[in-house]
Structure formats: C-alpha cells, structure tokens
Known about the structure:
- Helices cover 0% and strands 58% of the residues.
- The protein is an all-beta fold.
- The protein has a single domain, classed as CATH 2.40.50.140.
- The protein has a five-stranded mixed barrel.
- The protein is elongated and about 45 Å long.
Amino acid sequence: MKKILIGKVVSIKMTKTVVVLVERKFRHAVYHKVIIRHKKFKAHNEKLNLQLGDLVKIEETKPISKDKHFVVIEKL
C-alpha cells in the first residue's frame, strides 16, 4: 500500500519538481501536550500548474531521482 500525504507547496523553483511541507500532530505520551512535526518532501509535478501555498496530495512511488520518491496526484 502506497503512502498518501497532504501538504503545502513551499518551493516551485525546480523544473518538474515541487517541495511539499507535510505537518503531523501527535500528543506526547507523558506530558499530553500536542506536538507538531514538519517534514519536507520533493515531489514530481509534470502537468499541474501549482503556486506557493497550494494544498496538494502526494503519493509514494518508485524513486524518480536521488531524493524524489513522491508524485503529485492532485491539487486540493
């Protein structure tokens, strides 16, 4: 089963590639405080016309390059 993540586009400077910031929230086991963690993923984008700040859905795929393992499915 492939991972599907939702995140915000933070960079469109590369050709056919966007950088997507994925945020996850979880509750600390002892202190019960909500903690937010961020991770950036490079995703392949060939057809969609994306701008900074767009919400997108990305899906895991076979490696496209050294650090590109996701592809943009749709703009939300």
